[in-house]
Design a protein that fits this description.
With 464 residues, the protein is of the alpha+beta class. It contains seven helices and 21 strands.
């Protein structure tokens, strides 16, 4: 038996995502792994995902450090797997030629019959296996502009040829034009800091440039952050990535694409809260977390039947308005990684109890960061519950592609006029934002009034 090193590339987890961040490794070099064992947690722009191992064997090298964002198709892990010994390969080249041969039968560094570049067994890219954007030119003296650096597992030297220009007088111990030895995360750090690696002295084994070398080189440079005033605290910086980055892009796109209109309505929800208390006392709802949000969700689904414009989408490319026959209800959920909006599918077909159960499961999954990417797309209407934070109301921004979003404010006792008499009632504020290309003022007002009417008198639903 002999060992073959296989590379595990960052997979495409769906929904057209092109990159992901490695959050946590669950294995280390030297660990034995089996097929489908969880080896790493990644975070895409939409969710956190645990990836299973595709091979059984021994972890050879972790090719990506935690916190690093890489493109789909980039190798992130090398695994040594056992395979049966193959018959001896024919001698390479013409008679009298000597030199090592790779797994393709060609000499190391040459292209074999299958189109692969011959390398040590198990290493090296297959044509078309990885698609990456060309690197943008930088004024760093890198002679290999327009290509991606590739570092073989267990090595710190790029697998690509530096070309004829990679010669000349040394700079800081490095030949002019030749990018010195450094691991991919260190190269990325240098690029982010605008540092030419040829100007850095490597203190690692064999002159390899380490993260500490780059940071030490950068330290004397003047900072772009103004010094805080006397008595001010220190600043803390966090990279904009993952869910926060995706949410920011979506909100900016929505705010400057769809013409927003927001309307407000104060609602007496005393009867709805009384209905909730009665249902809680029944055996059917003993194990159901029945919240006011479940009743609001049901009211939204019923009101959308009377005003289908709020459950529609504007298709600019086709020049059409798309009306949906089912409500894919998004619920905005705050998580440690940022705001996500998982969906309750076909919410209009569910009872209040089923909506309550779906809401409980949906929010728990979102807060744990385990929402599948497929649950975060293709919504048609969204509810955001700002009331849980003690907020009365707000002006919510539409999720891209949707016609309307409803904000539910805090539910609390307030003075209210009932039959000409002042009384204390349970009241909340509703705020509806809608895309004025799809929803006219009359339609938006009718929908909001219908939701308010159902929450004021739940029995009204029997007449619709």
């Amino acid at each position: 038996m002999s060992a073959v090193v296989r590379e595990f590339a960052m997979p495409d987890v769906g929904e057209g995502l092109t990159e992901a961040e490695v959050v946590t490794w669950h294995v280390a070099p030297g660990d034995r792994v089996i097929v489908n064992q969880v080896i790493v947690e990644i975070e895409t722009a939409k969710a956190s995902v645990e990836l299973p191992c595709p091979y059984a064997g021994t972890v050879g090298a972790l090719l990506v450090e935690p916190g690093q964002t890489v493109a789909v198709g980039t190798p992130i892990l090398a695994i040594e797997t056992a395979v049966a010994d193959a018959p001896a390969a024919p001698a390479a080249g013409a008679a009298g030629e000597t030199g090592e041969t790779g797994e393709t039968g060609a000499r190391i560094g040459e292209t074999g019959k299958d189109g692969r570049i011959a390398t040590l067994v198990g290493y090296g890219p297959r044509p078309g296996s990885v698609t990456r954007r060309p690197r943008r030119p930088r004024d760093t003296g890198d002679r290999r502009l327009g290509t991606e650096e590739r570092v073989q597992p267990g090595s710190t030297s790029p697998a690509t040829d530096h070309g004829p220009e990679a010669t000349g007088a040394p700079e800081n111990g490095h030949p002019a034009g030749l990018v010195p030895l450094a691991k991919p995360p260190v190269r990325k750090l240098a690029r982010d800091l605008g540092i030419d690696l040829r100007a850095v002295t490597g203190t690692g084994s064999g002159g390899v440039i380490t993260r500490e070398d780059v940071e030490a080189h950068h330290a004397p440079a003047p900072t772009t952050v103004p010094a805080p005033a006397t008595g001010a605290g220190r600043v803390r910086r966090e990279p904009i990535r993952g869910v926060r980055k995706a949410m920011a892009a979506a909100m900016v796109s929505s705010a400057f694409t769809a013409p927003h209109v927001t309307e407000f309505l104060a609602v007496d929800v005393t009867e709805t809260m009384a209905l909730r208390d009665r249902l809680r006392a029944t055996g059917e709802y003993t194990d159901v977390k029945l919240t006011p949000l479940a009743f609001v969700a049901k009211a939204v689904c019923l009101a959308a039947r009377r005003t289908p414009e709020v459950n529609a989408a504007w298709d600019e490319a086709a020049g059409e308005i798309v009306y949906f026959d089912r409500v894919q209800l998004g619920i905005a959920a705050a998580t440690p990684r940022g705001l996500v909006v998982p969906k309750i599918r076909d919410a209009d077909t569910l009872t209040v109890g089923e909506l309550a159960a779906a809401l409980d499961e949906l929010t728990a999954t979102a807060r744990s960061g385990k929402t599948p990417p497929t649950d975060l797309v293709d919504g048609t209407f969204t509810i955001t519950n700002v009331g849980v934070f003690g907020v009365d109301t707000g002006t919510p921004i539409l999720n891209p592609g949707e016609a309307a979003i409803l904000a539910l404010g805090s539910i609390k006792p307030a003075p209210w006029v009932v039959d000409g008499q002042l009384a204390v009632r349970t009241v909340c504020q509703l705020a509806l934002s809608f895309d004025h290309r799809l929803v006219d003022g009359e339609q938006g007002s009718r929908f909001l009034a219908d939701v308010g009417a159902l929450l004021t008198d739940p029995g009204l639903a029997l007449t619709w």
